[in-house]
Amino acid sequence: MIVRDGSFDVVIAPAPRVAHWPSIGVTTLSKECSRVGLKVGILGENGIQVRGLIPQMGTGGVVIAQDQQHRIHRLQTRALVRVSLPQEISDPFPGSRSQGLLPVSTAMRVLKSKSIRLDQTLVILGTGNRALRLGSQYLEMGAKEVVCIESNESLWGKKKIAGWEVEQRRFMSTGGKIIFGTPLSLTEKGGLLWDLRVQDTIGVRILTVSRVISAGPFSHELPFREYPAGSMLFEFTQHSGEVRENDIEGWDLELNSSRFVATRMIKSLITDLGHDRDRIDSIFKKSKQKLRSRDSHLDDPFVVEYEGKWIKKETKTQIQKYAGVPKRLHQQGLMASVECFEDISCQICHERCPESAIQIVKHGVRLERVLIEDKCTACGICVKACPSRAITLINEPTDKTEARLVVPVATHHAKRLKTGEFVTLVNRQGDRLSQGRMMTELKTEVDTEFPGVHLIEIQTPSHLVNETRQFKLVPSLGDELEVTHTPLDQTIEVSLDGNKRRVRAGISVTQALFELGVARELDVLSCPDGSCRLCQINVDGIKRLACQTEVHSHMHIQLKKGIQAIESTKEDEVCACLGITRGEVESRIEKGKLSSPEQIRASTHVGEGRCLGQSCIPLFNRILQEKGVDGSRWVDWRFPWSEWVVSRGISE
Amino acid sequence: MLNYGVVLVGTGVAPLIAASHFISKGILCTILNPEVDFFLENSELPFRPMHPRVSNLKTQSQDLKAGSLESVAKLLQPEFPGAIESWSPLKSQTPGFHDPDTVHLRARTRLFLKSLKFEKEWDQIEELYLKAQDAGLNSQVLEGAKAVHRFPGFSGAQSNHYRAVSIGGLYDVDLIRYRNELVEYVRERLGPERILCGVSLSEWLDSGFRVYHDQQMKTIRSPEGVVLYWTPRMNSWIRCASQSLPSPKGVRLWEEWLIQSREFLDPSVIGVWEDLIAFSDYEGSPPRDLVSRNLLKVFKPSTLLTWTKSSGFPLSLPYANSETLSSLSEFCEEFLHWERFSISGMVTRVLFEWDDLEQATLLGESDSIVLVPGSDGPLDQVVSQSLKSIARWS
Ligand code: SF4
Ligand code: SF4
Ligand code: FES
Known about the structure:
The structure holds 2 protein chains of 2 kinds.
Chain A: E1 3-14, H1 24-35, E2 40-42, E3 49-55, E4 61-66, E5 72-84, E6 101-103, H2 104-111, E7 121-125, H3 129-140, E8 145-150, H4 156-159, H5 164-173, E9 177-180, E10 182-190, E11 193-199, E12 204-214, E13 224-226, E14 233-237, H6 248-269, H7 277-293, E15 306-307, E16 310-311, H8 313-321, E17 335-338, H9 348-352, E18 358-363, E19 366-371, H10 381-385, E20 391-395, E21 402-410, H11 411-414, E22 422-426, E23 432-442, E24 453-461, E25 470-473, E26 491-496, E27 499-504, H12 509-516, E28 536-539, E29 542-545, E30 556-558, E31 573-575, E32 580-581, H13 582-592, H14 597-604, H15 617-626, E33 644-647
Parallel strand pairs in A: 1-2, 1-5, 5-14, 6-12, 7-8, 7-12, 8-9, 26-30
Antiparallel strand pairs in A: 3-4, 4-5, 10-11, 11-12, 13-14, 15-16, 17-20, 18-19, 20-21, 21-24, 22-23, 22-25, 23-24, 26-27, 28-29, 28-30, 31-32
Chain B: E1 6-9, H1 13-25, E2 29-33, E3 44-45, H2 57-66, H3 69-79, E4 84-87, E5 103-115, H4 119-134, E6 139-143, H5 144-148, E7 162-173, H6 175-190, E8 195-197, E9 200-205, E10 208-213, E11 216-221, E12 226-229, H7 235-241, E13 250-260, E14 269-273, E15 276-280, E16 295-305, H8 322-335, E17 340-353, E18 362-363, E19 369-372, E20 377-378, H9 379-389
Parallel strand pairs in B: 1-2, 1-12, 2-8, 3-20, 4-5, 5-14, 12-19
Antiparallel strand pairs in B: 5-7, 6-7, 9-10, 10-11, 13-16, 13-17, 14-15, 15-16, 18-19
FE2/S2 (inorganic) cluster (FES) binds near residues 576, 578, 606 and 611 of chain A.
């Protein structure tokens, strides 16, 4: 067996299942470090998969990676950054480990593949930015109903991180619902439907759902930690999407964090920075300052208050006073109303406006968007470009009873509209207000760039133009959803444990099983690249990774124990692989007054099962926190991130 | 100011055992741990390795004597706050109450297996067989199938190329439980202000030191005395204390691999093959169902590296390199006859080795500072060294 040795100053490596690679934080880290002459290795590409890290006494460690030929690479590094996904597994409840519940990253991935039934309710556990944004996306794709469940209302104040108000507005005005309650159980109903029982203040309600998506607990923690302190071993959480527009806050958070971590690493790896010193210092300071100010608006969040369905007078005045909202010229014609009140780092509207009509101005410590009314030509580009749908065009003539409003509408809904038809106007939180009329679709120069958004002009009663922010079709005109069936010629026949089934052509085995409603516990983690290695399955007599194998006609898929729904898990199971419950972990902590994560993990064995902790370590971490054990800075560096298979004959 | 009593500085079992002893004698003490907890350095071994690489002819007799279940039980029990259960494949359990969750001392059979090819090395093993008999341990020479099929995880067919010496009645302890119960007990008795973790040394004073703990500078003075349990992690403290130190024979790196197995792993046997020690990994007495956690643990001691005062640690210790991996794959594929194997975990530790554990243990002018060699290594050695080090106070 040949082991290839290598050595680096900095190795950046993906933990299993990261959403995309390399993300902005990774490229930034590597750029900053190589610029000062450090040797940087980014793993995770070209079929090289990281198997684990062995921390070294002192600093850094050894990274073990395997390439496609199963050759082993042993890389010595002085500093390591492991990039992983944010937490997204829900607190366990019976059924929560079934196929009925998907982590949010998986749900985002299958969004485009249309594997989830949209004609039934979709539930998201969580009400943070990520949860709400995903909810809005599903609604815009035509989901019948999306409900976000908040089980810890006390967190709401804190959730109002920048951009939350906008996301919540988008979600609720497009028809999303938020309810408060705790999920009790999830049971399979058949036909890709599940029953979710939720306890709320009134009682237990049962929702029939097409899937439950878990968005994980909300956290204000900075997305990186070094453990142990001074070891140069960092864990870094991936918050960005593939493009900045998908999640600006996440993107900028990752960007600033990576700058901060990079400069910190540089400072300790290089003693004499020479002429780079000032530059590095300044990046360090700037990023630190930006990370600090991230929560600044928390002291003074923007909250829209209502009286019934009407905005309260004080809020109304507050909105009217806001610099992005037009004061005069919207009485004469259409004009942008930039209703993005919080101090967020997004400046897309400012960048995109061809007339420079939107300026970003520092107001105290905050950045504000200011509309220069004389310049705005109501071209609509900003409305299309705003990723949070926070901009509308309004025209509110003083002398008429009718006003005009242009709102962004997703294609799915827009294509069903007819000029002149009546629509139901809804406010910022989705309440029905009154009726209006669809006038026309506004065309812009950037239509090809944003095919998913249409600008629809509606006529509203004058007094409602500032309340209305979306509309719905009047139900009588056909609110039903067509369920799309894949035409027969686009499906193929496979055999599942000897039974014939039809699945869509061109999809992966994981997805096919998923669409057939076959419950394989660990498939729900559904990674994009086979890095978690948990979905192994017997296909045509060979073991393969289900997520990396495309279905073909007459494929034989052999499930281990036949088609089987996962039984409800134990009430409070933490580590499903080994059947360790929350109660056991807690009593261990209490009995022993244990105070170190290392010790608790070692003595409970959480994370030593088949999935190597991928589904339980995040939960375990949360239990620690609840129990007052300081695990916030702890990273489980135990060797395996994933199992490492060495087979006869393959390795040299 | 808090009276710290005797100050015990260390990272693992050694300071805990001393504290437990002091508690029972009513002597005041305080533990300082440079690590964040008592698990991180992980410097004890669950048994006497008895590995040709580690123990030479000189130490073997001693290892056999000290490593027997009876003598270890006698050593551990008095200082241990709870019950210690014993498990042996030969004896059925005595009637009465047994706590399945407590620390277990297990009598596992050591199986030294050799291929018939290596005639020379066999002599050494035979020597061991005789010594074990002298020590009153149940030892046997096994041939062919009898020898090889007892090896945990062996799934080959050809078995007449082997012979083995098996020695019964040597101890093996579940270390995690042992440490756990000790920490729990000591923490409860000493209270949070007398058991400080994550302490870093700032400077030595005449009878104590200034340390940094919990974001504060603290001055720890102890007229009663200071005991330093020398494990590799303690180096920086110890080197600050004195330049004239006794020196260990060397440091040895131990690799500890966890391998998923599909084969039956005999829980009562610890197999020794070439440079590896392999055994089924479990806590307590052997679980009935060995399927859910069917893990083969493999210890691989590397060669001894000389430890010099000036250089301190050899910086790049050779772990998980091609040598190790080749020997693992040879072991799993050629010897155990597994088609493929999956590695699910690996940790390393660095342990000191000593020629003479009785070496000078006093530091500085006054004799109030005691330096304890042998605070890492097999559990029984750690415990007895720890107890020896505090004899003067009791
Ligand atoms: S509508 Fe056009 S001109 Fe007006 S602010 Fe938006 S992009 Fe600029
Ligand atoms: S594009 Fe403008 S209005 Fe929309 S979120 Fe960004 S800054 Fe706010
Ligand atoms: S749930 Fe798989 S190891 Fe814990």
